[in-house]
Design brief:
- There is one protein chain.
- The chain contains seven helices and six strands, in the order E-E-H-E-H-H-E-H-E-H-E-H-H.
- The chain is of the alpha+beta class and 249 residues long.
- A four-stranded antiparallel β-sheet has the order 3-4-6-5. A two-stranded antiparallel ribbon has the order 1-2.
- Helix 2 crosses helix 3.
- It is globular.
């Protein structure tokens, strides 16, 4: 007798097809998504000129570019005289000032504002004579406000100049000077050439001197830019040096 036939019923699979393998999943820990931390805002830095070092020059050495001379801080020695004076447009200044001073005058002229110079360096003796004349005509109290005592004038350093207004010469060294074209030009452009207006209405209490829109002090382009960027109106404030309206008793 022959072997019995065995019939196998395949359900749901067409003839010739391969039954797909079942999908097996492995249990695992649930996926945890950690949110990124909120970044801390970076504070906006105060405006500053890049790379300036306020300790680069002495504020006491009379030969220093950043020397501070006021009623509290006389030149030391009192009869100091720069040894590198040169003449620019009829005024004596230190050699370090000359190139930028010429550039300032040329730039103003190119803008149609032919600025002149009244004075630059003044010796101790010159300042003493000027001060004595002012005091004799207007009194000591007036002189203390408007004319530095000998040894207390920036002009003796060779780093300061008084400018002249060819457009309104009657306003030279007078309260109407700020209304001149020359005053408006230096207020906007002097800093570009390393100069600052040393005595302003804003800093009178610190410098001790009445406003002088004609008095330019050379500090170099780096410091002039830093003072402007940071809204600092006096050298005293920049370097933490004392000043004020009174001479030492």
């Amino acid at each position: 007798m022959g072997a019995a036939a065995v019939w196998t019923l395949q359900v749901g699979t067409p003839s010739g097809a391969t039954t797909p393998a079942p999908i097996v999943t492995t249990a695992s820990a649930p996926l945890v998504v950690t949110p990124s931390p909120t970044p801390t805002p970076t504070p906006t830095p105060e405006p500053t000129a890049v790379g300036i070092d306020l300790a680069a020059h002495s504020t006491a050495d009379p030969a220093s570019l950043w020397v501070i001379v006021n009623k509290q801080h006389p030149i030391d020695p009192l009869e100091f005289e720069p040894d590198d004076l040169v003449t620019v447009a009829g005024a004596q200044v230190r050699a370090i000032v000359a190139e930028d001073l010429r550039a300032l005058l040329d730039a103003a002229r190119a803008d149609g504002v032919p600025i002149g110079l009244r004075t630059g360096y003044r010796s101790y003796g010159n300042q003493a004579a000027i001060r004595a004349d002012v005091a004799s005509r207007n009194g000591t109290e007036y002189a203390d406000r408007y004319s530095a005592r000998a040894g207390h004038s920036e002009h003796q350093t060779g780093l300061a100049v008084d400018i002249h207004s060819p457009t309104r010469p009657g306003c030279d060294l007078k309260s109407c000077f700020p209304d001149t074209a020359e005053a408006a030009w230096v207020a906007q452009h002097a800093v570009e050439h390393g100069f600052v207006i040393r005595y302003t209405p804003e800093n009178t209490a610190v410098t001790g001197f009445a406003p002088e829109g004609w008095h330019l002090r050379y500090v170099g382009r780096e410091l002039a830019a830093w003072l402007t960027a940071n809204g600092v109106t006096s050298l005293e404030e920049a370097f933490g040096v004392t000043g004020g309206p009174d001479y030492p008793s």
